[in-house]
Amino acid sequence: METLTVQIWRGAETGSFASFSVPKRDNQTVLDVVTEIQQRQDQSISYRFACRVGVCGSCAMTVNGKPRWSCRTHISSLKSSVITIEPLKNMPRIKDLVTDMTGFFDKWGQAGNVFESDKTRQDAPAKVDPSSQQRKAANAAIECINCGVCYAACDVVSWNDEYLGPAALNRAWSLVNDERHTGKQDTLVAAMGAGGCSNCHSQGNCMTACPIGLSPTRSIAGLKKMSLFSLMGKQDG
Amino acid sequence: MTAFHGNEMEQIQTDILIIGTGGAGLFAALHAKQANPDLDVTLAVKGLVGKCGCTRMVQGGYNVALAAGDSVERHFMDTIVGGKWLPNQDLAWRLCETAVERINELENEVGCFFDRNPDGSLHQKAFAGQSFDRTVHKSDLTGIEIINRLMEKVWAADVNKLEEHRAIKLVRSADQSGIAGAVLIDMRSGKYRYVAAKAVMLATGAGPTMYRYHTPSGDKTCDGLNMALDLGLGLRDMEMVQFHPTGLLGGPDTRMTGTVLEEGLRGAGGYLLNGDKERFMFNYHDAGERATRDIVSRGIYQEMREGRTTSMGGVYISMAHLGADHVAKSFPGMVKRCKDCGFDLAGGLVEVVPTAHYMMGGITFNADASTTIDGLFAAGEDCGGVHGANRLGGNGVANSTVFGGIAGDSMAAYLKHNKSWRDADPNDLEQAIADAEYPFTKSGGDIFQLRQALAETMWEDVGVMRDQAGLDRGLATLETYADAINEMGISGQDHAFNMSWHEWLNLKSLIRISQAIALAARGRENSRGAHYREDFPDTGSLEDSANTVIHATDKGLTLSLEPVDFTIVKPGQSLIADDAGIPPPSAQHQQELIS
């Protein structure tokens, strides 16, 4: 039977790779390989997953050098019989493949990402034209599942600890285009603050890495433009 | 710090402890803080806040009577008829009534941006088993929008988060007057924590993951139900496990197996083909592939049982006759998911099987989310009674968010009159640690193989179609599993992020709740909704409907039957003029039947 050689990071900030041999199967994801090793070869390996289908954003890992969802990365797509699995970059390591995502979530909030509204549960929902430019812009960025893949792929995050990162700013772009959001100015100020959108170098790693094809790069460019108009005192577009 | 069995246990105090962070848990936290911002509220979850559980995985949407022509009465009647007259009517009414306020709250306060009609109002789509198009949604990823926005609100609120903390025991007060708190394992360090709380809420989301094919997320293993049994709470309608007809089939060694391919594929005209590549659903029902979940699941199961299967043992779903481009455009999420897993949904054949999806049964609770234990509240899939014998697609997320919010309100109100912590029963604390440490005292055995065996037994003997002989056999086999796990240990002594230890604990919960399901299924000698008995295929008298209730006693699990109290409508009566549960004529052609 064809086998895969799998190198898995063991330890935390310091550690080393452990090597395993796993049978190659027709239907096999990276998560399946890690699971098989834990269940049949080394019970002490730690990893994190929940939904199994690319909805929860819990299981991302660095696979052959790139951040990916382990649950939706088919082994055949790697085109290699040697697979190296490490925790996501740009996050503190807890154990083996598990990272601490707290900083990533904190920055999500620091980017001004809390919806504010003058309506309450006693009111009917606002009428929103589904074909408006604003709604389309909000929609284009809205399906992010906060998996941290773009954050791990971003070079700026790796050298600038303050940078809020692509996911948080992508959400801010969605929010400033949400015509129901009364805190638009606050969100914009937060998103263009010290760690904000101006730090982005538009290298597009986030866009390339995003498993669902979102473009935080485009969202951040939109924020930059909007903040420029805002600084010039004009009505933003 | 107090030592138990040589293990130190840190003790912390909070006003409200919420276990679980799906729609129910997050809503409870927000509502409790809104009612009284001074309350100290703590969320505990096996994974990360908002990333566990199944609210996030909701594809279809949220049932709510908003539009002209619809009404709470109509939504209620659809729920009762869909639930085959087994729902607790007060709970079902509360669901339908409060859904209106809750959807407005989700839109206006939480920030969910649901899809719109051209005139700007909320779009509501058709869903199976309903007499009105009332399902609010965000594309086909409604759950992501709901949980992402709830997460943002909870992150911004002053709520304590105990992430990767597993609850192992609900602790009674020393005087047995009510709840005192819960013992948790900090999964990262492996240390024990006792959280003393004036009110505790169970919102762990149950989840039928004991079946060979299942849809829920991996963290769900019925821990809440198991802890509730220990506390003396009754579990009702446990035989009611909903199977979704089209779970992806990828073989035994992949976690992709069992995950849902949405029902909209069948609604849009997808074919189901057996191993001989022949359509078969019209052999079972006039509606063919568009029949309801339970009927299609049984049709597929029958084909499988008669050996007309694909190479991996399921059937095919085929969409190509609708045009591959059209399919790719209509179902981009499903097509991409299949592609990532190595299958061509738009143009090829994808193997599918019925897959255990949702537990209608659960903890007996009240419309204010209280339980029979003073200070203990519960909401969401941990609870039974809202859906009866079958859950309508779109009533699941409505259930968790409606009753989650109510639980938050109720706990805040409860704390106005219950201002002190109860002293913990030291025996409960001792027992919690002793039970959790147990696998470290054993060695040998293969818990992963035992979980496989459990999955086979539940699928074969307590699954889509049941009979007395199978249920007897299943119960006898489950008994051997309950003994077997007690002889199995885990390798090593390291407690930190030890997933194999937690899998042992998972399996412990699953075996016991499997026994509850099998016992309830044997006790129900008729066929209703999700529960189908081949030896009792008739519905039985609706007027004499009864609910099964399981309790844990010194002698093991016991079953009783309790007559349904028709508090609002009796069988034969209705609150609406036309038929409930039947799609409106305009929707029958392009009916979408989504989870």
Can you walk me through this structure?
- The complex is a heterodimer of chains A (237) and B (595).
- By secondary structure, chain A is α+β, with helices and mostly antiparallel strands.
- Chain A has two domains: 3-99, Ubiquitin-like (UB roll), CATH 3.10.20.30; 102-231, Alpha-helical ferredoxin (Fumarate Reductase Iron-sulfur Protein, Chain B, domain 2, Orthogonal Bundle), CATH 1.10.1060.10.
- In chain A, 35% of the residues lie in helices and 15% in strands.
- Chain A contains ten helices and seven strands.
- Chain A has helices at 30-40, 75-78, 102-110, 133-140, 149-153, 155-159, 166-176, 184-191, 205-209, 216-231, and strands at residues 3-11, 15-23, 60-63, 66-69, 82-86, 93-95, 98-99.
- Chain A has a five-stranded mixed β-sheet. In chain A, strands 6-7 form a two-stranded antiparallel sheet.
- In chain A, a hairpin with a 3-residue loop joins strand 1 (3-11) and strand 2.
- In chain A, helix 7 (166-176) runs antiparallel to helix 8 (184-191) and helix 7 (166-176) crosses helix 10 (216-231).
- By secondary structure, chain B is an alpha+beta fold.
- Among the domains of chain B are: 243-355, Alpha-Beta Complex (Flavocytochrome C3, Chain A, domain 1); 440-563, Methane Monooxygenase Hydroxylase, Chain G, domain 1 (Up-down Bundle), CATH 1.20.58.100.
- Chain B has helices at 23-35, 72-82, 89-110, 142-156, 223-230, 264-267, 293-305, 324-330, 332-340, 396-417, 426-437, 447-461, 468-485, 499-523; strands at 2-4, 7-19, 41-44, 62-63, 124-125, 135-136, 160-162, 165-172, 179-186, 191-202, 235-236, 241-248, 271-273, 315-318, 349-359, 362-364, 376-378, 383-384, 546-553, 556-563.
- In chain B, strands 1, 2, 3, 7, 8, 9, 10 and 17 form an eight-stranded mixed β-sheet that branches. Chain B has a five-stranded mixed β-sheet with strand order 18-16-11-19-20. In chain B, strands 12-15-14-13 form a four-stranded antiparallel β-sheet, covered by helices on one side.
- In chain B, strand 9 and strand 10 form a beta hairpin.
- The longest helix of chain B is centred in the C-terminal third of the chain and has 25 residues, at 499-523.
- The radius of gyration of chain B is 23 Å and the shape is globular.
- The N and C termini of chain B lie far apart (47 Å).
